[in-house]
Amino acid sequence: MNTTLAPRPAATVNASRVDLYMPIHKAMRNFMADTLLRVGRIDVFDDEDMHQALVQLDELLHFCTAHIRHENEFIHPAIESQMPTGASRTAEDHDTHIESIEVLHNQALALRAARPESRGTLAQRLYRHLALFIAENHQHMHVEETSNNAVLWSHYADDDLREVQCRLLDTLAPAEHLRMARWMVPALSPAERAGFMSGLQARMAPDAFQAVLDTVQPHLDSSGWIKLMRALGRTAIVKYA
Fold first, then answer.
1. Do 42 and 50 meet the contact criterion of CB atoms below 8 Å apart?
2. Which of 29, 171, 191, 214 has its CA 20 to 30 A from that of 123?
3. What span, in angstroms and rounded, lies between the C-alpha atoms of 23 and 21?
4. Separation CA 60–CA 54 (nearest Å)
5. Are 194 and 228 in contact, with CB atoms under 8 Å apart?
6. Helix, coil or strand: residue 46
7. From its phi and psi, is residue 230 left (phi > 0), alpha (psi between -120 and 50) or beta?
8. Is the dihedral of CA 43, 123, 41, 32 positive or negative?
9. The CA-based dihedral angle spanning residues 223, 227, 233, 237, taken in that order and rounded to the nearest 10 degrees
10. By the 8 A CB rule, do 165 and 200 touch?
11. Is 87 helix (H, G, I), strand (E, B) or coil?
C-alpha cells in the first residue's frame, strides 16, 4: 500500500466523538508488538519455547482475521451507505492482509516441521515477514482512524455509532470477548479503560463480566487496577504486584 506517514488534518481527529476504531486498534497494536518481540526471541533449540511463541502468533493471526471480518461486515457498510466506494481503499487492504496472513500461517507451519538445524533461517524469515505485515497494518489503521472516521463522523451521530458497535460486540463469543479484553484493556488510557469497561459491565451478565476482570487484572499494574475499580464503583483488591 502507498500510505503517507504525514499527520492528517486536525479535523479528522476528534477525541470527543465515538470512535469505532480506537479501542480495537489499540488492542491490535498491543498484541502485534508483543507477538513480534516474542517471535524475534524464539529459542529454536527449545521445542516448548518455540511452540509457545507460535501459539501466540497463531492467536494473533486469528485475531486479525476476525477483526477484518468485523470491519467488513459492520463498519464498511456504514461508510458505503453514505459514501459509495468510501471504504474501497481499506477493503482492498483487507484482501491483501488476508493473503499475508495465509503466508505467515504457512511459514509458521514450516518452522514447526523443520529440523533444528534449519529452524534459525526459517525463524528469521518469519520474524521479518511478520514485521512487514505489522508495519502495513499500522499504516492501514492510520487511514481508518482518519479518513474513514471523517466519513463516519460527518454522517452519523454518536448514538448511531454506538449502535453499530453494540451490534458488533453482540456477535462475539465469550472466548473472543476475553481475548479482546486481554489485549485491549491494558492498552487503553485510564479514562478510555473506565468508559469501555463501564459499557461492558452494563451489557454483560455479572459472571461473564467478572471473567473479563479476571482476565485483564494480571496485565494491569496496581495503579491501573485501582483506578479501574474506582471507576466501576468496586473495591480494589490487588492480586498482582
1. yes
2. 29
3. 6
4. 10
5. yes
6. coil
7. alpha
8. negative
9. -10
10. no
11. coil
Residue 3 pLDDT > 50? no
pLDDT at residue 1 tops 70: no
Local structure of 3: helix, strand or coil: coil
DSSP one-letter string for 190-219: HHHHHHHHHHHHHHS-HHHHHHHHHHHGGG
- What global pTM score does this model have? 0.90
Measured between alpha carbons, how far is 198 from 232 in angstroms, rounded to an integer? 6
Give me the pLDDT at residue 240, please.
54
- Give me the helices (H) in the chain, please: 22-40, 47-70, 76-80, 88-113, 116-143, 149-155, 158-170, 174-184, 190-203, 206-216, 222-231
The answer to whether 203 and 166 have CB atoms below 8 angstroms apart is: yes
Residue 14 has pLDDT above 90, yes or no: no
pLDDT of residue 137: 98
Count of positions (residues) in the chain:
241
For residue 167 the three cell numbers come to 451490534
Say if residues 87 and 79 touch (Cβ distance below 8 Å). Answer: yes
* Residue 108 phi, psi dihedral angles, 5° rounding: -65, -40
Domains along the sequence of the chain with CATH: 20-156 (1.20.120), 172-241 (no CATH)
Instruction: Report the amino acid identity of residue 37.
Output: L
- What distance in Å separates the CA atoms of residue 119 and residue 142, rounded to the nearest whole number? 35
pLDDT digits (tens, 9 = 90+) for 176-196: 999 999 999 999 999 999 999
Q: How confident is the model at residue 4 (pLDDT cuts 50, 70, 90)?
A: very low
